[in-house]
Amino acid sequence: MLSLLAALVSVGMMAGLFTGFSYAVMPGLKILDDKAWIAAMQQINKVIINGWFMPAFLGAVVFTGAAAALVGASANRAALPWVLAALALALVMFIGTVAVNVPLNDRLAAAGDPGSLADPAALRASVEAKWIAWNTVRGVASVGALLALGWALLVHGRAAG
Fold first, then answer.
1. What is the DSSP secondary structure assignment for residue 98, as one 8-state letter?
2. What per-residue confidence (pLDDT) applies to 24?
3. Which domain holds residue 18?
4. Domains held by the chain: number
5. How far, in Å, CA of 128 to CA of 140, rounded?
6. What CA–CA distances, in Å, run from 139 to 15, 134, 161?
7. Do residues 11 and 60 make contact, with C-beta atoms less than 8 angstroms apart?
8. Cα angle vertex 76, ends 74, 82, to 5°?
9. 161 vs 115, more confident
């Protein structure tokens, strides 16, 4: 089923992005001084809104929702619980991003030039730990959704015979 495959690919792209931030990007940025850390995050947040991120980010929810609807409406519903689990996890990733990480990114952007900040340490302290924690939530949710969709494809294929 193409909707399941599209969901798997888009969720997989998000799982790779968020977990890559957890195990490589954020630990790499941690060594930077406050002004450099803010500048790096500001730049990442500018360039990430692009033709790769947005289709994967939105597609993770849209394609998984479409797969749930199509599997639910089909005669072969064996994979439906797994697709619904994936959809719930994709929604955790999406809502966490929109409700937590994006507002933190906006706070960094609104600060302007890090070189002109009176207290860059205070800004970093108000953003970094929460951003990392919620990125971990996004990563775990995305990996869980990816596993559920992979299993759904397997179950769907087995049930189809």
1. I
2. 98
3. 2-160
4. 1
5. 18
6. 6, 8, 33
7. yes
8. 100
9. 115
